[in-house]
Amino acid sequence: MTGTDFINSLFVLLLYMIGIGGLNGSLPAVVLYMIYNSQNQWLLAFIILYVTWMFIDWRTPHRGGRKIGLDIIGASFLFRSLKDYFPITLTKTTDLDPKRNYIFGYHPHGVLPDGLVISFGTNLLGFQEMFPGITPHLGAHSSEARLLTIVVPLFFLVILKAPIIREIALWLRVVDVGLESCRYVLTKMGPGNSVAINIGGAAELLDSCHKDYILTLKRRKKFVKMALETGSPLVPIFGFGQHDKFLQPSFTNFEWLGSYKSTNRTFVEKWLKIFAKGNVIPFCGKCIPYLPNDKPVAVVVGTPIHVQRVESPNDEQIEQLHNKYVEGLKQLFEVNRDKYGVPRDTKLIIQ
Description:
Number of strands: 9
Strand order of the largest sheet: 1-8-7-2-5-3-4
Order of helices and strands: HHHHHEEHHEHHHEHEEHEHEHE
Number of helices: 14
Radius of gyration: 20 Å
Strand content: 5-15%
Low-confidence stretches: 143-157, 254-264
Mean pLDDT: 81
Helix content: 40-55%
């Protein structure tokens, strides 16, 4: 291992600790504990100012996110290290019209969707040169409605409301993934402004260390409805190698909690299953906890699916477009699987 490789590994380790810590709640919990036990008046003053700022800035994720200084964080050595560690690459299959507003659907989630973040949240892979005039905004959860459901754990789960994680995310052009926020980007911010969403979300974390690509997509249709309502073309994106960062220990099935997809499971049970597995998987990486295997991630942007605007789409129209999207995603996978070394016995499973 060279000195550069060692430094890259350290920065990736830091990013994964921050990212996973933000997802499972451990990082904000540690920060709050430090604040609670701190006797430093300057630190307490800073915290008071920061919390005040958070409330003033509360609606920013719902109104297009940060507008200035977007490349400061994205171009930092921290994210360059993440790009070079695996490495992550970006490939396009066709040009995009800068006069249109697109909805990019990224698959799969993995433990952390670093392929999505590096490709669309930064310009380290040349997105702006590949797709001139297109400005992607990454979608992440910050739903106040869910926050009211289970206050303490979910406060840490939603990225755009967790201290520290929130600021990093906003500098990466992250916006709230809710319908109101995405519609604002697609209809109020001008041509080229688009949203990039990880469709499967945290549910796919449960299947992220499997031999097959297992996608949570069958019942994810709100993004399709939004595409119809705004007339935004859908663009499937596949991250080859995104799911293969940590090993899958046999004891992490957590059958005592049942299936995440089961409709008779409460939200708390589903959250507990993600929380439990999200805290075990990071210990099954390359050589030390939280350090992922350095296997390449190849992000391939597919062909846009044309969408005719419908003010109030019905279930049949939503289902038809959803089927088109699924077929487009399957085709993208099959056409490129050999190029990126996907074994023939590896399946694409959509559930």
